[in-house]
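Reopening closed ticket. The problem is back. First fold of the pair:
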Amino acid sequence: MDQIKSILYSLIEPLTKPETYQTLISNIIMIIVYIIVAWIVLHFINKGIAQFFKIQNRGKKANKKRSKTLIALVQNVVAYVVWFIVLTTILSKFGISVGGIIASAGVVGLAVGFGAQTIVKDIITGFFIIFENQFDVGDYVKINSSGTTVAEGTVQSIGLRSMRINTITGELTTLPNGSVGEITNYSVTNGESMVEIPVSVEEDIDKVEEILVEHFETMRSKYYLFISNPEVIGINSITRDEITLWISAETIPGEGFSGARILRKEILKLFKQHEIQIPKPMMVQYDANQQNNA
């Protein structure tokens, strides 16, 4: 009984002393100061990191997407380091041994590691994706896992553990890095737009090609995504009603489909302007009486 009273007394006694509350208030104020200072430091460091990559890649369009990826990664790592320093400093203010916690964390981390193999796999895969430059923020990619497409769209962000992809229909897909298998990046090499344009067999095909070539010379300055002037490859097929022309254009990476849509729109407007006929189905009227008389 006396031991219980002694323990209770040792717990209650500090609460009766004003010095205890003064120390507590002082520590709380110090914690708030540390947090505010850490937030300000992170703000300026993040701005400095973004400015550094901006200066390094000024005028280099190919590296701008890479810079976005690395900026997010470096800022995340710096944030982890800063907040770890703040946490250890706060703990030391309350007399907690940081060294003992780190030593204990090593043992616990070893045990937890066996049960967190998926997270470890995600982080390792994230390192390979980022540092091997498999794709960057802003790239249009298709990602397969075990032969099945799990996501296709524009990369919004890449982290050490997961990535976010905006699909063409607007959904935001978050994928663990460890689930990534085959990667098809449509934004690395230049795209190609290939369209087939049907023209009536009654038209002068040489004149049609001449009109198309003349119009294509102005399209490159009108649409930024064309790297060179579109060109008429030639006649792809001939039937009783139509001649099919094959049109090709080189575009910037990832814009092959957009270029094809623009080509079809521009050619349709051009045909209407020059009254170039497109194929129309031919209707043959069958007269049963004439057949019987014959």
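Second fold of the pair, where the issue appears:
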Amino acid sequence: MIPISDNIRCWNKPIVNYWLIGINIAVFLWELKLEFSNELGYFVNSWGVIPAQISGAITNAIFLNFAAWIVVLWRLFSLIVGIFLHGSFSQILGNLLFLWVFGKTVENILGHKRYLGLYLAAGVVTGVAQILAQPSLTVPLIGANGAIAAVLGAYIIKFPQVKIYSVLPLIILYIPLEVPAFFYVFWWFVQQLFYGIGSLNIPPFGVNQSGVIYWGQVVGLLFGAGFMRFRTFVR
């Protein structure tokens, strides 16, 4: 099932959404360049979210010396950078498709600054949840999955019954459909079973090789839903 668009009119251009999509594409193209020169493994292992490194840096900072917190801050910066890294063609295509369909409407509701805040905060919160869930994991966790799950959660809270124009690909046929928005909460997690297709070569152990990444996205989904609910409540 491929979402195409909704029927909600946006009065303002989703500038932030365009920029987020553009940055993700630009970074992925840079990853392809690094893969060609055999430098991608070093880059991703330096800037991806590696729970063991972050939890280890925090432990050292607490029990050793104050200067060690500089290392902690550098490691925590990977929580932001990791949002814009992707490990496969299927991962970035799936993520950006959902961002394109659902992000523009959420940005129109929240405004540019709040929407950017939601996206980045959700990515960080998801990363923290993954670290807490498996602090000894040595494989990098990368991708905008948690941030986009939050965008989807915010959208569903506001428009659960809105029809999403979709297509169902059947080999050489494409069947047009209108699917309720809440269906894509389920489909979001299903499609990620295929995110290994077109994987980049990231030595030594690849990326995202842990079931904890899916639980992290549940956190992102709930964070986005809570963010939208709180905004509606205080308005």
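Update: turned out to be a display glitch only; the data is intact. The chain has a mean pLDDT of 85. The chain has nine helices and three strands. Please close again.
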